[in-house]
Design a protein that fits this description.
single chain; alpha+beta; 8 strands
Length: about 425
């Protein structure tokens, strides 16, 4: 009978990280496969195996992870880097992008082709472009304020006629305008441009007026009789010995505005008040005059309503999520970014190794047991990942467009201060 051998035999783990990676195995190991078509990415992932093997002491102790784990971690590191870079760029350009074309993305975070909104953007990698500086957000805020102030905006202003009734003082403008919108004609019988636009929408009255058609405005006409400005390019109604005061152009403009205001208000004996779009005229109209009043108004718009005349950005970018940023092409990542990716990938591999070794706190051996360092690896990995994210975020925060402009301003100021100390050549010697 043979004597049994009781000496312990060294057993290697069934899974051990090899010393080098294999280029051809990378694609099959990637969870998302976003960079499968990038030869540079595949080469970088394969080379990362040797880096992880050396840094984790693979030539001294077994590393119980596979090369596939390194490839997957490398993909995750690239995606994490792209996330931080795109988040930084979104902070820079969101105000300029608001209302511009957005797009639809596939599961890889890449713009899909053939989609109407994104077809013009497909393949343009917007994250790599430097957009024109625009006051997009401020402009859209100003448009809304301009509409209410009556000094601009993008809402059409309409005019409606109101047939007066003898001795009737009150008129429901909302009902009158809504009825004309349904019928398509106003009180005069003219076709209205706001047909079908009012419905139950509230109208905002901008002004009430009446006027008699004139062949010419008296202020600039030959026969105004004002003898103030007239037509100064020829004699007009003035005699040869007429004397004119030379005044600045701004005063002419002020006079013009004053006279135009008087035509619409001071020459009228009527006044009015509006309450909840009910018009009350003072005094009560008579049967002969005025036959009609006119009102200027706008139709309240839904904030989600699309402008039929022009694209106003309702379907455009509205937040960071709709900015047409694709995943950053691996080929466009410089050495700074790739070194960050290598370090982050190493930390992810350390985390995976910690998860594997944490399944057992120790391994028994004859006469003793081997304590595993799974928890220590997990703790180190989490700290390293957070430190790397913080490091990159701090750098990016210092490189926002606003910070760069502030730095340029400080540089210019410093140069000016230096130039103040340099004597002019005329005084030298």
């Amino acid at each position: 009978m043979a004597i049994p051998n009781l000496s312990p035999v060294s057993q290697q783990s069934a899974v051990v990280l090899p010393a080098t990676g294999t280029y051809g195995d990378v694609s099959d190991a990637l969870p998302y496969g976003i960079y499968n078509s990038s030869t540079e990415f595949l080469s970088g992932a394969a080379a990362q195996v040797a880096y992880v093997y050396k840094k984790l002491g693979g030539d001294v102790l077994d590393i119980e992870i596979k090369a596939d784990n390194v490839y997957a971690a490398y993909e995750e590191a690239v995606l994490e880097y792209g996330y931080l870079i795109n988040s930084h760029q979104a902070k820079n350009v969101l105000s300029d992008f608001l209302g511009t074309t957005t797009g639809s993305f596939d599961h890889k975070g890449e713009l899909e082709s053939g989609i109407p909104l994104s077809s013009s953007l497909s393949g343009t990698t917007m994250a790599l472009k430097y957009p024109r500086f625009e006051f997009a957000y401020a402009r859209r805020v100003a448009e809304g304020m301009g509409v209410d102030a009556g000094v601009g905006g993008n809402i059409t202003e309409y005019s409606a006629s109101i047939k007066t009734i003898a001795a009737q003082q009150d008129y429901d403008l909302q009902e009158i305008i809504a009825s004309a919108s349904v019928s398509g004609v106003d009180a005069v019988g003219n076709t209205v441009p706001y047909q079908g636009l009012v419905g139950n929408k509230r109208v905002t009255i901008k002004g009430v007026y009446y006027k008699t058609p004139h062949a010419m405005w008296r202020f600039y006409g030959y026969y105004g009789g004002l003898n103030t400005v007239g037509n100064l390019s020829n004699y007009g109604q003035y005699s040869d010995d007429s004397t004119f005061e030379v005044i600045p152009t701004w005063q002419n403009k002020a006079q013009s505005m004053a006279f135009e205001d008087s035509i619409y208000s001071r020459n009228s004996h009527y006044s009015y008040e509006i309450t909840d779009n009910f018009l009350r005229l003072y005094p009560k109209p008579v049967s002969s005059s005025p036959a009609y009043f006119w009102v200027k108004f706008t139709v309240s718009t839904d904030p989600w309503e699309i402008n039929s005349r022009a694209d106003d950005g309702i379907n455009g970018v509205n937040n960071m999520n709709t900015i047409p940023f694709e995943n950053i092409p691996y080929e466009n990542i410089n050495s700074i970014g790739k070194q960050w990716i290598r370090r982050f990938c190493l930390s992810l591999c350390k985390e995976t190794l910690g998860q594997v070794r944490s399944k057992f706190g120790s391994i028994p051996i004859p006469g003793a047991e081997v304590q595993l360092n799974g928890s220590d690896l997990l703790s180190q990995a989490k700290e390293e990942q957070e430190a790397l994210r913080t490091e990159l975020k701090e750098v990016l925060d210092e490189l926002t467009y606003t910070k760069l402009m502030t730095g340029d301003a400080e540089s210019v100021e410093a140069v000016n201060n230096i130039n103040k100390k340099i004597p002019l050549k005329i005084f030298v010697g």
